[in-house]
Amino acid sequence: MTRDFVYSTSPSHIVFGAGKLDTVGDWLDRIGCRRALVLSTPHQKADAERLAETLGSRAVGVFAGAVMHTPIDVTETAMDVVHQTGADCVVSLGGGSTTGLGKAIAYRTDLPQIVIPTTYAGSEVTPILGQTEAGRKTTVRAASILPEVVIYDPALTLGLPVAMSVTSGLNAMAHAVEALYAEDRNPVSSLMAIEGLRAFRESLPQLVAQPSDAEARAEALYGAWLCGTVLGTVGMALHHKICHTLGGTFDTPHADTHAIMLPHTAAFNAVAVPELLAPVAKMFGGSVGGGLWDFARAAGAPLALKDLGLSEADLDRAAEIATQSPYRNPRAIDRPSIRALLQDAWEGRRPA
Ligand code: NAD
């Protein structure tokens, strides 16, 4: 076997541990920021306000208007607040939607970001920003988008509802599965992907059984960091292309879409690269797709696209869009095979 790879590390600081929320002020000092604007969704506004209060004069305000898919009009409203307050950094408290807003501000201003993730989406460790305007999602990649500091405090995930924990966890696992066959993978990305999958393999069933299990929560968040890191490091393939198509054009919920599609896309690609996905088959038992599907079902994940409001008639168009300018994929794709894969996912069939 020849070894041939490029390995680049990210310049972020990663801080992990229960109670680390208390260190946000110290990190502001360390990165030389004095005027933080705290961001959140409307749902997490009270948490953002509490955080701003603990930061005292180092916080200049709270903007609690983050929503999914980073619509440009919301970013523009937030930018007005950045200018009015004279903020010199953003502190994003929440899931991928809040992180997305912070990244959109950083992309436009180069302001530093501290992110405190409360889901397993993984956006906090990627230099990628997805934005939507007039119903179209576009993606940009830039150094200014990568957050400078990420504070993982598992205590903040204790209240993440079980159903969202499961879909968010499967969303993260999809980053790791695709990293295993990424063309630009390297030995470290593959190690991180396997360790991330192992962390979720162990923790998701535990936190479904006992949502307040602090150790399981910490393990899942650790998995989220690993899976998010490989998402930011190597290229994604068919799975992410299909999920971007479904979310971007048909507005299906982000994490649920990933959760439903993962067993199907993994099964499809396992035909071409069984050796690269062998760790997944071993970890989840049986075939790659079947093992992942059984795991998702046991955790209570949604299994059928039809339950997300997608109509059967939409599948033709979805297959057409997903096969236009496709991402690099280990197995050749064509419209009929992707249409058939979508049909299976729509019906909620277990992959062989
Ligand atoms: P989200 O951020 O939209 O959160 C969903 C809801 O759950 C929100 O109302 C939020 O306030 C609430 N919530 C979050 N954490 C909570 C907690 N601990 N307790 C209670 N409620 C909580 O969902 P998400 O799946 O984390 O993020 C999805 C978005 O992230 C999408 O827009 C997606 O495109 C983006 N994303 C981007 C990247 C990237 O690298 N650019 C990666 C992954 C996801």
Automatic annotation (TrEMBL):
Keywords: NAD, Oxidoreductase
Domain Fe-containing alcohol dehydrogenase-like C-terminal: from-to ranges: 166-346
Record domain Alcohol dehydrogenase iron-type/glycerol dehydrogenase GldA: where: 11-154
Entry superkingdom: Bacteria
Keyword Protease attributed: no
A Pfam family of this chain: Fe-ADH
Family: Belongs to the iron-containing alcohol dehydrogenase family.
Protein name according to UniProt: Maleylacetate reductase
